[in-house]
Amino acid sequence: MTALDARPDSPTALRFPQGFRWGTATAAYQIEGAAAEDGRTPSVWDTFSRTPGKVRNGDTGDIAADHYHRLDEDIALMRRLGVTDYRFSIAWPRVVPTGSGPSNAKGLDFYRRLVDGLLEAGIRPVATLYHWDLPQELESATDGSPAGGGWARRETAYRFAEYAGVMADALGDRVATWTTLNEPWCAAFLGYGNGVHAPGRTDALASLRAAHHLNLAHGLAARVLRGALPASAEVSLTLNLHAVRALSESPEDRDAARRIDAVGNRIFLDPVFHGRLPEDLVRDTAGITDWSFVEDGDLATAAAPIDSLGINYYSPAVVAAGSSESPSPWAGAERHVRFEPAPGPRTAMDWPVDANGLYELLVRLRDELPGVPLVVTENGAAYDDYADPSGNVKDPERVAYLHAHLAAVHRALADGADVRGYFLWSLLDNFEWAYGYSKRFGIVHVDFATQRRTLKDSARWYAEVIARGGLEGRGDLDG
Fold first, then answer.
1. Residues that bind substrate, according to the entry (predicted)?
2. From the candidates 183, 234, 360, 397, which is the catalytic residue?
3. C-alpha count within 13 angstroms, C-beta hemisphere, residue 383
4. Is 330 among the annotated ligand-binding positions?
């Protein structure tokens, strides 16, 4: 990576290092569709989305953006944008339908076509093994345990490692970067804590067990990948770390921030990078569990070395002493913490826009994890954009959001953070989990009735940023 530079004729230009990776990202359940085709079996999200009242408007991912049938068209869009990398996820139930056992040839063939098409287009494939679509059969396999199945069950971690081996054998000669898990916090605490994500359980103990088993799964899979992939391959993990701010400097508010940092951030950072559980987390959750489900050797396994850490960031969190909603995703903290609205503009998700939070996370990791390369693996915003009568999709708010956050990445680079790339979320408008199709994150507009793709102004803007290797300052907010 070379030093940052600004063009002499443009004092406000922000140039990124040579070789900086400019990407975009998607997730299988959100875009693929073809939910019951070619041997794919249900995931927990298929079950959850078909449960009345769980997803807005009763939407499901059965068709989504129909990427399964429009693969070539979507790769052509990426090539037109000039992205160097594409981060996609693999649907576990498409390639290993029962969650274990024989693989599905037709499912593997789809991802082979995707990877081959990307390479032919000059785009580097970045594969994520898990973006929340757990095979339903694994969630249903409880072995009679009161903890239930899925990620609350230890065996799921071993099935995940087997699945990692299947994919390494199938694509290891063509995919250079492998991410084990995407946002395990969401899988554990939104899926098992407050139930707003699949599988929809509301059990604080199950959420903590799930978090640990996800850490274990990551370590087990990382070891499998190391054994199966070329030495040049990269193994990574992506976390949605929380940029937590105390409402005031009072001891009570600062303790609230500490509690959220423990259950939101360090519950993954400490096992993965230090082979330990945070002592304050264990203390905070003593009323829920004694952590006896952590077996000898688990934390050493979770700490398998990785080549980079992915960071997903959208907005910061402001916390104060108080109490949170019930059921809560904040196991052990809900009776001590309340969330306060952050100042500033909001996205269509009602999330505050504050690029400083991304800068804060990157410099924190610079200091806490020296020598670990960082990649911004998701960053973007949902707005209520639409195709006007002339067919154009103007989204100046998204352009402003992206500009501010890329400037924050540049600032972190200038201050010594080793940031290797930026992946914009998302390539396409898609199925936005519990919000269904009501929220649009894409830089490509999708008319879900016709599946017509239309480049938004933000897509053209991003293509220009990639082509020149950085930002031109405030002027390029005009798109």
1. 30, 131, 182, 314, 425, 432-433
2. 183
3. 24
4. no
